[in-house]
Design brief:
Structural class of chain A: alpha/beta
Strand order of the largest sheet of chain A: 7-17-18-19-15-20-21
Strand content of chain A: 15-25%
Largest sheet of chain A: 7 strands, mixed
Oligomer: homodimer
Shape of chain A: elongated
Number of helices of chain A: 24
């Protein structure tokens, strides 16, 4: 029986094997409670280790949805809570594993990793979560995690808040499950022009966490703009990036001592590209800083290059790794084996000559080297040969000197292999020292890749650099939906909002583009705050602290709750969470219930957002009664999307224009559809009666 | 070069190969115009050939949707009409082929098939369509179509009219594309307990075409009831049916002379089961008629049985088909070959004895039979042997008598194969005469299979026999949705309608089961009129001439038209087409446009259906204003679906109760969802104001 030691457990959240990993970041998460929620996240493949504290369950869910961990550890107090557990599993159908959340165990794991407990872990729930996540990763990896070099506590309020519903509605990562949308029809699909895996992961991270302070946003925009303006530079940079390997994960394997020869070889080839890249960036003042942050790793590349052959094998224990001339002892061993092999080759010719037998020198695993003679020559075999195998019509012989040479070759080869492996380990060890620098380089390159990708998108799709308004003005001229416009034939639209004109009531028929208009506004804000150019001819924006959307797709069912219940829960979240610096997008609030209570709720919500919250609100509705609001609320305006019936049927202009929509639109469609004249006449009479009353109703209700 | 004649073209609508066909009927359709639309349908695999004349484009589409042809021929006047062509291809994405629609060509195809033009083809558009479909099939099959034995013109008004939208909405064949429904979650999936392919096709056909006359429906119900009552009989019948092959398609291949030996064998095995089946059916007075319609085919089965071996091979030209003792000449040939083989077997033993050589008799394709001798015995070989092959250590010899025997065997075998093939052709020819009877038997068996399947469903699921009311009363006690109830936990509901109470206004929240209630009513009517038992405790029904549904699923997009446009088109069709004998189901008419014009249209439509059309109407709506209608319209009633908010959240009771729904439902959900108290208070005030006004508005508008 062979005793094998388990050195690594495979779990979805702690993978490091490149072949098993998705190109996205692969997080293991842990969640614990105690004066809020502590959430710790660890990507074992790159060593990224971070965490934050949240004070509401919904913000924890939103954060988890942004990070999408592959595996989650829940603290016992959460596991025992059946209601929580059920909700959690419904919303995050990922693997749940058991972690050790006792504070003592956590401290031990942290000390084992870092020597001391790192800063940022003062909050007890976060400490327990961080300890659990680290301890779990240590146990699956069979010990310490050299790639994990520190913990970062981040402040969720330093980023724009995006709810799970908003990310879904805006189709940032995933297409809507309804309809025939494909992966490319997402924001990530359109914007994801990165050339490296770390760049792609970083772009996904930025989209999860748009910034809220102007300084860092402007710095990013400067870098993007430099690459927009200089197409030749951008092309050159992207060409180089394309040839650089996933240094982030490579650094992780390097630090963990798991890198193989091909990893080192790929590292060297990647590092050798850096001087050229730095040279390119030095020419641009906006990118100079980036260039200067790239650590000099030429020596590491050189070291690998001189040690390893060009085409390294996958296995590191079977030789063929190390260049001739790198190690004298290895060279000597190789020479010895070579000389013995040459002697054998000479032997065949010499013995043929000497004995006149057309013999062959052969080798097999059982008997080693031998001389083979066919039946007609049996008589001529010299007496110092010894028969070791007899076949049907041939015999195999050996000689004492043959045995000796054989031993010599095998010995030299085995020694050479050992020597090579030792040399490789030494190399890996020494290169491993540079893992933190490689990780640093990877981070800078990822950033550069995102700048170049955003610049490429801006140039390809005709985006403009957004400006930010300290007075809170919003002005978008000819704004477009970045994803929908890719389909062609898109009609751009303007939008103006300000603290004084902050509630826009949008009416008009279905299919005319109301919800696209809402979505593009949110996407432009989001793009601007990650530091991207935006799809518009001009964009002046406030810095939003949150973006909320309540845009219903269809009568879908979310985990057994009625659509209307979901709608109301989302509305409640918005009314509670939005501020005067938030962007709120509401579509068809109050559908799914009867007319009057739906209308009352929509009306009260609009008033609340206008009067109390004072958020920037786009409110699309079928409740025509709401078009009376601008008369009553100083900051409200009516707009509508245009549609007209023409000879061939309905034409949607997808244009957003001031004023309320025409009320008789429905009747005109019904006429086109062939509803009998008699019914239409009656409907028109009823409509006239209702309209005559509505003003009074609105008036009286409001008074 | 081998010259091959194309004997059959493969096109989706003219397949006959069992392996290529779906189990469903496989129609080729042709459509021509001229005083209405002529539609001809041909199933080449069974020989079914039928057609009808329609006077509206939408009824043609509905019919095509019911038959779902695999391939369609359009007359040139339709192909040239770009608008028509585009609409057609959008709604029926099937293969379009070119047919010959000239009247002269059609007459020629019909005369070639039937000798004269069959009756029922007096209408010129139908004549052209029938001629085109037949001519096309003839050309793909390379000549006449013996399986096609006549043309049936049917009267579309003899069946309940079901629109394409209705079949889709009711999920009769296909699950809705939205949500996670699977194939089994269709009416066909629940009801399709048939045991034979023709039975399954017939059930699909019945579901396409429910009957409108009571006599034939009662006859079907009698047969079903007999099988419901006698479970032992049902089980026995279904066991036998399960063992019967697809005689309908087999009859088609038989008539076309394409049956192979396995087909004949399967036919015999199937026919041999019929006497037992007839014996079973004779015991039941309701099924006696069915038994008596089964033609006696015992003689055919016997003929096949005596001719063919038990396990016939697939190829009919390579022998091994025909039983020993069937044909004296064949027996003689087989005996000759056998005798020669026996001589050869004896030869080996005899010659070993005689020569003392351990020889073997062998055979290969190149040199035929030979005697094989190994090297040590070369010297002992008799002189009359002649060497014909030398191998390394053995030689092969022949003798004159060996050659002769060989020729004898080969000749006898080849003759036997020819004789077998001739006997098979003779058999196929003679059995082919019985093709019309086999088809007849297939039709009767299919009917029996459907009765048994409906009876099995009724027994398994607890259905009841429906009764029909001459006075037009509808009373369903504890009705259920046949598909939804399979999921368990279903709440049954009653329904009463009559000419005096014909408009039911149904209010209540989403998710509470309004549209299930509407759908189950339509399904019960449909089931009753195909002659099935229905999912209820008691069901008294009028005989409906049409069932209309306008039940929107979601904001889906149908071929670029807006949802609202589609909704209005369907409404227009209903208002134009429905009669006092129709069942009309409307859900949320007027959604997708602004409140007042949607409400006006819904209101006017409800009035029109009540006053003018006088149909049986279930009208589900969110427009609470419509609950005022019963006060004004003598035949209108209010009902609602119950939902209540309880501690754990909302509870839907799925119960339909008299009276309008509670108006404040929406506010109560909003409260549960966490909408701020302040907003709720304002909404309640607004609602009270609106409600106070609405009575007056309705009153004033109506006056």
């Amino acid at each position: 029986l062979v005793r094998r030691e388990v050195t690594q457990l495979l779990t979805p959240g702690t993978l490091t094997q490149e072949t098993l990993l998705r190109p996205e970041a692969n997080y293991l998460a842990a969640l614990a409670t105690g004066d809020g929620y502590g959430l710790a996240l660890l990507d074992v493949s790159t060593g990224e280790f971070r965490g934050a504290v949240f004070y509401g369950k919904s913000s924890v869910y939103d954060e988890l949805f942004r990070y999408r961990p592959a595996e989650v550890l829940l603290a016992p107090e959460l596991c025992r809570n059946e209601g929580f557990l059920e909700e959690f599993q419904r919303r995050f159908p990922v693997m749940l594993s058991a972690g050790r959340f006792e504070e003592e165990a956590g401290l031990q794991a942290l000390r084992a990793q870092f020597g001391a407990v790192p800063g940022g872990l003062e909050h007890p729930a976060l400490l327990r979560a961080a300890g659990a996540v680290l301890g779990y990763a240590q146990s699956t990896q069979g010990g310490a995690l050299p790639q994990v070099q520190g913990f970062v506590r981040y402040d969720p309020s330093a980023f724009m808040q995006l709810s799970e519903a908003t990310l879904r509605t805006l189709e940032v990562y995933d297409p809507s499950p309804v309809g025939e949308s494909s992966e490319e029809r997402t924001l990530m699909g359109v914007l994801g022009l990165t050339r490296t895996a770390p760049g792609r992961r970083l772009l996904r991270a930025w989209l999860r966490h748009p910034l809220v302070e102007e300084g860092p946003i402007q710095a990013r925009l400067d870098a993007v703009e430099a690459l927009v303006r200089d197409g030749v530079l951008r092309e050159a940079v992207r060409k180089i990036l394309y040839r650089i390997h996933d240094l982030e994960r490579l650094a992780g394997r390097l630090a963990a001592g798991r890198a193989n020869a091909r990893d080192l070889s790929a590292l060297a080839r990647s590092l050798e590209l850096l001087p050229e890249l730095v040279g390119l960036l030095r020419g641009s003042s906006a990118l100079l800083g980036t260039a200067e942050r790239l650590p000099d790793l030429a020596e590491v590349a050189e070291r690998i290059h001189t040690a390893l052959v060009e085409e390294v094998p996958l296995k590191v224990t079977e030789g063929g790794l190390i260049r001739d001339g790198f190690d004298p002892e290895l060279d000597a061993l190789r020479q010895r084996a070579e000389a013995a092999r040459a002697w054998l080759a000479g032997l065949e010719a010499a013995e043929r000559e000497r004995s006149g037998i057309p013999l062959k020198v052969g080798y097999n695993q059982v008997i080693g080297y031998y001389l083979e003679v066919t039946r007609p020559y049996y008589a001529q075999v010299p007496s110092d040969w010894r028969a070791i195998a007899t076949l049907k019509d041939r015999q195999r012989y050996t000689r004492p000197d043959l045995r000796e040479k054989e031993r010599e070759i095998l010995l030299a080869e085995s020694e050479a292999r050992k020597r090579e492996y030792a040399a490789f380990l030494e190399l890996r060890e020494s290169v491993g020292q540079a893992a933190p620098l490689v990780r640093e380089a990877a981070a800078v390159l990822a950033e550069l890749d995102v700048y170049a990708a955003l610049a490429e998108a801006a140039a390809q799709y005709g985006y403009v650099r957004p400006r930010f308004s300290a007075e809170g003005r919003l002005y978008i001229r000819a704004g477009r939906h970045p994803v929908v416009e890719r389909g062609g034939g898109f009609i751009p639209n303007d939008l103006e909002l300000s603290p004084g004109e902050r509630l826009l009531i949008l009416t008009g028929p279905n299919m005319a583009g109301k919800s696209t208009y809402l979505r593009q506004t949110a996407l432009i804000a989001l793009l601007a705050q990650i530091g991207s150019f935006v799809p518009a001819e001009e964009a002046l924006l406030p810095l939003f602290d949150r973006v909320y959307t309540r845009i219903g797709a269809s009568d879908d069912i979310a985990g057994g709750r009625s659509t209307f219940m979901v709608e109301m829960e989302e509305l409640a979240q918005i009314l509670q969470g939005a501020t005067g610096r938030s962007l709120v997008l509401l579509d068809e609030i109050g559908r799914g219930t009867s007319t009057y209570d739906g209308l009352s709720l929509a009306w009260a919500a609009a008033e609340h957002l206008h009067d109390k919250v004072r958020s920037y609100t786009l409110f699309a509705t079928h409740y025509f009664e709401l078009t009376a609001l601008p008369e009553r609320l100083s900051g409200a305006r009516n707009f509508h999307v245009a549609a007209r019936e023409e000879a061939g049927g309905l034409v949607f202009y997808h244009q957003v224009l001031p004023g309320p929509a025409s009320r008789s639109y429905g009747l005109e469609v019904a006429k086109l559809a062939g509803v009998p004249r008699e019914v239409l006449g009656r409907a028109a009479t009823l409509l006239a009666g209702l309209e005559a009353q509505v003003g009074d109703v609105g008036q009286e209700v409001l008074d």
